[in-house]
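S.,

Sequence below, as promised.
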Amino acid sequence: MKKHLTQQEIFFFKAVPAFVWQLVFFGIPLAFLIVLSFVKDFSHPFSFDNFTFDHYREIVSSDYMRIIARSLFIAFFTAVLCLVVGYPLTYYIALKKRKWKNIFLFFLVLPFVTNLLVLTYAWSFVLDKDGLLNRLLIALGVIHEPLLMLNSFFAIMIVMFYCYLPFMIMPLFTSLEKFDVTLVEASQDLGATQFQTFYKIILPLTWPAIQTGILLVFVPAFGEFVIPLLMGGDKYMFVGTAISHFFLIGQNRPLGAAFTLASSAFLCCIVLFFLWFFSPNEAKKQIRIDNETI
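The prediction came back faster than expected:
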């Protein structure tokens, strides 16, 4: 008699390929990095006498912590800038210009479908000393001499903002497109101001999308490699450029593994704190408190 598989067994067999994929491409490389970060000599990684904490001591007691802090700052600033610009822009497209929303959305997410290296090189021609932006400012009479914008923190920030803005817009647009406009109309009929309507209705209901957008921007921006390298040159060192230097140029793989794990640990702690402190449950709790007060 043929035996039918239960739902738990079917789920198990479906999950096996995903588990194998995670094990091969995430678990094993992560374990290799952990082992590598504690060895003195890369040629004898499994010798007990080769075990050391010196790499982590060097990271804590040197300028490497400043590199991690700089990467955290630029990732945070990029996420905040994308939110400040992307939220009202997405709100206007999703709720005010529904007829043309697909066209506007296409132009906004165009950087998302373009190669990052091509975008970065294109911006280098825009921000160059003889580039489009300097020529435009000189033609308008704003400046008289070309500005040196390449190889600067400003160039890194403007390109980071441009390339990561679609990561903020997409979750916001998905949430705002499904937003019930009658809630705003009801709030206005009850005498609430535009700020009260936004703060007590729109913002809490779209908070999960805001949280998703911030994480989608913050996490990859923290380890960005191409943009800081091409826009900042050798003046600024970030986590992505430092890791590539350890493994490809400096050939110091144990220190590079330790730096990778240390920076990832800092990133995970900040993300977990963000998820705990700005959880959607707090926003829902605030809505219940406001309703009870009313």
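The longest helix spans residues 64-96.

Coffee later?
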